[in-house]
Amino acid sequence: MKLPYEPKSVLDIRRSPPSPVIGYSPDFNSFDYNNNTLLLSSEEKFPVELENEHTMITHFENGDSDSLMRELGLYDDYYKSSCPLDLPQLPPFFPSDFETLNQYSNQNLFDLITQHDDVNEFDFTDDLILLAECFETQSFQLAQVILARLNQRLRSPTGKPIQRVAFYFKEAIQSLLTGSTRVFNTCTSYEIVQVIKAYKTFLTVSPIPMFSSFTANQAILDTTDGAMNVHVIDFDIGLGGQWSSFLKTVAEKAEAQKVNPPAVRISAVVPEEYGPESRLIRDNLHQFATDLKLRFEIEFVSIRVFEYLMFKSIRLINGEKTAVVLSPNIFRRIGSDFVTDLRRVSPEITVCVDAELSGFGATMVFRQTVIDGLKLYTTVLESLEAVNVGGGDWMRSIEMFVLLPKIMATVEYGGRCVTPWREALVRAGMKAVGMSQFVEIQAECLVRRLQVRGFHVVKQQAEMVLCWHDRPLVATSAWTC
């Protein structure tokens, strides 16, 4: 099954609707990847929006993660953003024709560029894609020449969305060329707090995270309804806020039916460097479940251990109804061989939340990864700017602590020859199943609540797709054995 839309040139990137916000303060300096730090200008540190931020950092350093999360209110916001809405009269799903966007996909990339107006404004995209090609073909001397030119044109992440996204990709590719590629680590208390605040802001201003969490959670709730023991294997837990809404819904449903709530167990497969985040997630979800009087457990398995042992690294208990949450990230990191073992686990449902929409796989090349990434993240930034609330500090926070790590990971693992995740699931004998009508209606309600024109939901075969105008942002699909 193909994605609704797979951009093949930067022409599609340039056809983006004009952004209501041109940019923000140009006070950013570059990044020091070798020292694993993020450098801001000497005039400013990252904006402190809350007067009690020092208190929050102290909470984290003292191990009081419950107080930290209560101060930030991330879990509460996830629940408030994901709870069902009472909007009975809904318009039909917004029509969209993704295929019309592909009419130029077979043309030469640079022929398309020369056909577009204001070419000079976007010369840096030509160089960025040439840089990706040089990295792919190991033409490192030419790559250094192109990189020097890009460093002159893209000095900081300012300007229009396409310029800022190009800057981040340029920095990520440069880190590959210098051998300093790293996973974006949040190793200090200050950075941990900023990441949580950025995700909280992202949840507040964009429907992307709440659409992802609601559609995935509801698909699991529909399938595990009536079970007394529910086990979720999550390959993309993030900060875990989405599970607060899941637990809350489980508790409320049991109370309404006057039955005992099920025991919920989560096994999260996380990167090796995810120690501080894992502690926060564990402490807060445990406290959240205790307040709801739910039986709850959570365990963490490192990706390295899972890659070696596969599902033997995860504790499975007879009598549990198991659900699995996937994202393209796990396929990109360890390949698709684990899917065969996944079918042996016989989950009741497997949900994939695809926030990359790149279609990477056996035919992907690094150059195409960069083009797809430019397209996707430019669309994300344009959709954020349409919200147009306040100044640029909140946008800067989301870019640096939410989107930049994703761009770094995309570049680091881009171009790897792996089977596309949809193809891998089909080969393993799994079948896509449609979402319930309730999921469709409530997903549309969530988008409408933001009251920003341009967001809409499309049902594309068995997928629920959140779009910004006619471009997809994230898609959720459900699969069974």
Q: How would you concisely characterize the structure shown here?
A:
The protein is of the alpha/beta class.
Report the mean per-residue pLDDT as an integer: 76
Beginning-to-end CA distance, first to last residue: 17 Å
Give the tally of β-strands. Answer: 11
| Main sheet makeup | 9 strands, mixed
Computed CA radius of gyration, to the nearest angstrom: 22 Å
- How big a fraction of the residues is strand? 5-15%
Q: What structural class do helix, strand and pairing data support?
A: alpha/beta
H/E topology pattern: HEEHHHHHHHHHEHEHEHEHHEHHHEHEEE
* Sequence stretches where pLDDT stays below 50 over 5 or more residues: 1-51, 81-121, 359-363
With helices defined by DSSP (H or I, 4 residues minimum), what is the helix count?
A: 19
Secondary structure: helix percent: 40-55%
**What is the overall shape?**
globular
